[in-house]
Amino acid sequence: MRKDIVESVLGQSRPAFESERRGNGRTRVLIPAFALCPDGRVVSCVLRDMSPSGARIGVAPRHALPAQFQLVTDSRPHGYPVRMVWRRGAFAGVTLDLPEAR
Predict the structure, then answer these.
(1) Which of 32, 45, 77, 87: CA 20 to 30 A from 61?
(2) What is the pTM of this model?
(3) Each residue of 10-24: pLDDT tens digit?
(4) How many domains does the chain have?
């Protein structure tokens, strides 16, 4: 199912590159998106790479992100529930927060 999510955002399957910090390969992307926060704020961001378990997003450092939010793209207007795992400067790592992943 998680691989299907990546393909639905990309619109196709793409080759992945391996990362030594995660078990799943990542796919480099450049997809406009936004974070829909629980308090109603909308924060513009860009998907920079994706894997079946999560993504790295680019977001302006001035914007605070909550621990959990919906990551919305054109191909998924209702968004994906995500949980922020790390934040460094203009980037943040998120993991899909699906019930089966808990």
Answers:
(1) 77
(2) 0.74
(3) 454 444 444 445 556
(4) 1
